[in-house]
Design a protein that fits this description.
This protein has two domains: about 240 residues, Spore Coat Polysaccharide Biosynthesis Protein SpsA, Chain A (Alpha-Beta Complex); about 90 residues, no CATH class. It has 14 helices and eleven strands. Helix 8 runs parallel beside helix 9.
Length: about 350
């Protein structure tokens, strides 16, 4: 059997923004792995002041870590640029607000690719290593794991403890993909703030050949660190900004790949987008409004914000209906550079 299948070379791509201690934790986990055929690539987007303080720390890892330096690019473009510099047959994604668990994390991803028909893998996302399945309805969670809703919204359920093959999409972290497919389909669409995984997965599913598949495997596990703000700081984003991100996703991604469904069901798509944003604000957001919440309290303030958002929803819809979809040609040349860590040594 081809050696690249039995023992593939993996690139661990870590996207980072001003969080050196968190990145170092991930690097330490990677260096303690039971797999020996991989590289660590840090996609650093920290500001200049932070970079001046941390570049010497990265220099101490010269020979074990590669660092790509760029201005803040956003989730999708950071992946596009990072993959451009990766050398592995497989790219394994990790963000600096998450943490791989266990010494077999890389090998658990790698062994899936022994099957040449396996194109991508999503691993389990947990709060601690080998935690029990927490879903009340396990059968329903399994059925919905990494599937799409009727309106093409991605459903996660990545805490299940069973292999599921195939799945419809791959998560943004603790997932791995054959690099050749990323290059073939042009990577991620960078003009959508959140939900960038789906701009890639819609194209990937169309590119799969007969028999090829994406799989969810619970063996490679990663911890989502809720005490660290994500790179996009989604939990502190305002309701209006989050709603706008929904509009961008539906008008620029879903409408592009599924135009008939999008326009036929347009009023329902808008309602689904608004309900999702309102539920996010009520259940998951840490956003604190400067006017309504101090005046009325958190709960009443949230209701006022939601009602205001419903009033402006038609205007937002009109804005994105008449605005042209920003184009993306896949070009990442001259956006960032690889840092010579040996040159940084004192």
């Amino acid at each position: 059997m081809n050696q690249s299948l039995t023992h593939p070379f993996l690139s661990i791509l870590i996207r980072s923004y001003n969080r050196l201690p968190s990145v170092l934790e991930i690097i330490d986990v990677c260096l303690a792995q039971d797999y020996d055929h991989y590289e660590i690539v840090v996609m650093d987007q920290s500001d200049e002041a932070h970079w001046e303080q941390t570049k010497a720390v990265f220099a101490r890892h010269a020979g074990r870590v590669r660092v790509i330096r760029a201005r803040p690019l956003g989730s999708a473009m950071a992946k596009n640029l990072g993959v451009h510099y990766c050398k592995g047959d497989i790219v394994l994604f990790m963000d600096d607000d998450d943490l791989p668990l266990g010494t077999g994390w890389i090998s658990a991803h790698a062994r899936c690719y022994v099957d040449p028909l396996c194109i991508g893998v999503s691993g389990r996302i947990v709060k601690k290593l080998d935690e029990p399945n927490q879903y009340r309805n396990r059968k329903r969670a399994y059925q919905r794991c990494l599937t799409y809703s009727f309106y093409k919204r991605g459903r996660d359920f990545t805490g299940i403890d069973q292999v599921k093959k195939p799945v419809e999409w791959l998560h943004g972290m603790n997932s791995s993909i054959r690099r050749s497919y990323i290059l073939e389909i042009g990577g991620w669409y960078p003009h959508v703030t959140y939900f960038d995984e789906h701009s890639f997965n819609f194209k990937l599913r169309k590119a799969l050949k007969p028999g090829e598949y994406l799989v969810f495997d619970p063996t490679p596990q990663a911890k989502r660190r809720y005490n660290i703000p994500g790179g996009l700081d989604k939990r502190n984003t305002s309701f209006n900004s989050f709603l706008k991100s929904q509009m961008k996703y539906y008008h620029w991604v879903v409408a592009h790949h599924f135009p008939f469904r999008f326009f036929l069901l347009y009023p329902f798509v808008l309602l689904d987008s608004f309900i999702y944003s309102a539920r996010w604000l009520r259940k998951h957001s840490r956003y604190s409004d400067k006017i309504w919440m101090p005046l009325l309290g958190t709960q009443a303030g949230q209701y006022v914000i939601i009602i205001t958002g419903f009033i402006i929803l038609p205007l937002l819809a009109l804005r994105y209906l008449i605005s042209p979809r920003p184009q993306w040609d896949g070009n990442v040349e001259n956006i960032g550079e690889e840092i010579d860590l040996n040159a940084l040594k004192v």
